[in-house]
Description:
Blueprint: H1 2-14, H2 19-31, H3 35-46, H4 52-66, H5 69-82, H6 87-100, H7 103-116, H8 121-128, H9 132-145, H10 149-162, H11 166-179, H12 188-200, H13 208-226, H14 238-250
Helix pairs in contact: 1-2, 2-3, 2-4, 3-4, 4-5, 4-6, 5-6, 6-7, 7-8, 8-9, 10-11, 11-12, 12-13, 12-14
Amino acid sequence: YDKAAQQLKTALSRDANDGLSWFFLGVSHLRLADKNEAIRCAYKAVRCLGTASLGHDLAGRACMQLGDYLQAVKAFEKAVQLNPNDTKAKNHLLLALYAVGNTKLAYRNAKERIVQTPTDLVPRALIALQNKGQMRRFVRQVRAFVGEDDFQMLEASLIFGELGLANEAAELLLAVCVEAVPENERSPLPIYYLAYFASLQKDQTLVSAKAEAVAEKARAYLNQAAGIYKDFIFPSRPEAVEVFKYAIEENP
């Protein structure tokens, strides 16, 4: 991402009104954990022709990672307003509403999204977080009608994780891809993701004992995944690279 950022800065030195370059520069900064710079680039993209919706969505993602959920809701609402067909922005808005505590509206909108796009897992996953009964129903639905259910759940969990909802991402993966699968049929992929999401729960505000418990949980998942030799390990999207970088660094 450092190299990409440098190349994008070069492109912008030639054309400061290149909205896509501002957008991807912001994405690069977000991947490098420079969230404030990502927001600055996002609003540069907003002011360029054709990238306003992308810019607002990127700003919302950065705000979610900063824990500024109210500002994230506003950014995602603007992104959806500018591009009502942007499924990703709509899902981001659902999760931001959930994070800010407006769960009633989040669940209501999620139900509407399911009617509009029945195969989209994110709205269904959000509703599953309401209670154990909804989670059991979600598990049955996913394993009944979703092809390559593990892969689709990994994709959905990354959306939750990228927006700072690591606990929720882990809860969903554990229910669908681990607990619902016989031990001898489990793939190591979801367990590597569980380790990564556990590591994201570390926070400077945690007391040392709790922080160590979180780290131990992550190590336990890594050790469990390392003992499964069912299939090859590969990232399906750029966000997944961080999962496996973490696994290799922590358990080479």
